[in-house]
Amino acid sequence: MFEKIKVPEEGEKIEIAGDRLRIPDKPIISFIEGDGIGPDIWAAAQRVLDAAVEKKYGDARKIVWMEIFAGDKGQQVYGEGVVMPDDTLKAIPEFVVAIKGPLTTPIGGGYRSLNVTMRQKLNLYACVRPVRWIPGVPSPVKHPEKLNVIIFRENTEDVYAGIEWREGTPEAAKVLDFLNKKMGRNIRLDSGVGIKPISVTGTKNIARKALRYARDRKLPSVTFVHKGNIMKFTEGAFKDWGYELAREEFGDATVTEAELWEKYDGELPEGKILVKDRIADSMFQQILLRPDEYSVVVTPNLNGDYLSDAAAAQVGGLGMAPGANMGDFVALFEATHGTAPKYTGQDKVNPSSLILSGVMMLEYLGWQEAADAVVGAMARTVQEKVVTYDLARQMEGARKVKTSEYATRIIENLN
Ligand code: NAP
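Predict the joint structure of the above. Result:
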């Protein structure tokens, strides 16, 4: 089936059955180690996840790992220049659930971002980033525990669609000519030009995923974040289509902020989800000043990029922030930081982001006990102040340990 990937003999495929996943007791899950610090943090994450599954389920359950390749390792295995082998793009949807370390993106040349390529080719239209505080982690705010949100960022459209033309090229001149002459605009001729598409389909897909998540987990609110006061037909439409979908498909389960006051005197009826919207700039203040008023947050691509990193900073930074790229069923879990190349091979950096992405993956499999065990053990380890350099420099009296030692201590703390 594949050119270079070795499918393990043990284990079974996760299958899509109707609108659900069928998870075998020994699912085959593909992983990409990643570039730079990837191998260090992956080794740590894999050990912690395996130990938690064994602790909670004994022999009854086990993840059967299958290595797939991209980035530097893609080139090692498939030959120079092959950074995103076809095998990898075939294996991820075939085996449904995958996890990856960070991959290098050359700036201003070389190849396009592999992460963006995977999102677009596999239609992983939702970037999902839970942001919550692990007790003990140093934070720049007084009450980091008040922030507990999950951000659903649209992943394929907006200015990230990659439709742009460099200043001075014939293509840019053609687009400018059209806009200036045919559409009555007055854009400077020495401009680069980009396009910001936001569709009904893309918006409703991400809104549906977020509302389903809120409904299934009985969460109190879903907030659409947008810049619709300025960009009415893209960002403003995003908000309008979000409300439209909530009304059409989740009408019985939702109440809008306007209805809350008109019909319910400001009291959210039991079991309903409050649907609201915020303008992006105001939302950056809100998550700092009144973080506990937000639960599920839905954003277009660019705003979501900024907002998820800003929110992550409140609870300890990117080293602690997990994420996933998801389609309807296929899910690719990943560390949210980059390859931190200066620390390559030093067994030094914090593997928590990838470990917590693994926690999201365990939750996605429905293996909640193992997921909770990892979070508890990580919290205990951080509270003991056994941490990697990045957290140690923010804590008094910390014992600074290597990536692998931190993972070992988390495993010892599993219960
Ligand atoms: P970065 O790799 O995230 O690293 C920036 C800084 O963040 C590091 O120097 C380090 O700060 C801190 N950091 C990141 N990960 C950490 C960890 N696990 N533990 C502790 N500290 C950590 O960002 P970058 O240098 O801008 O990007 C490097 C490469 O990664 C680029 O090629 C970029 O395109 C790629 N990238 C990939 C992804 C992805 O695969 N999803 C995401 C972002 C970037 P200090 O040195 O101050 O301690």
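The first strand starts at residue 15 and ends at 17.
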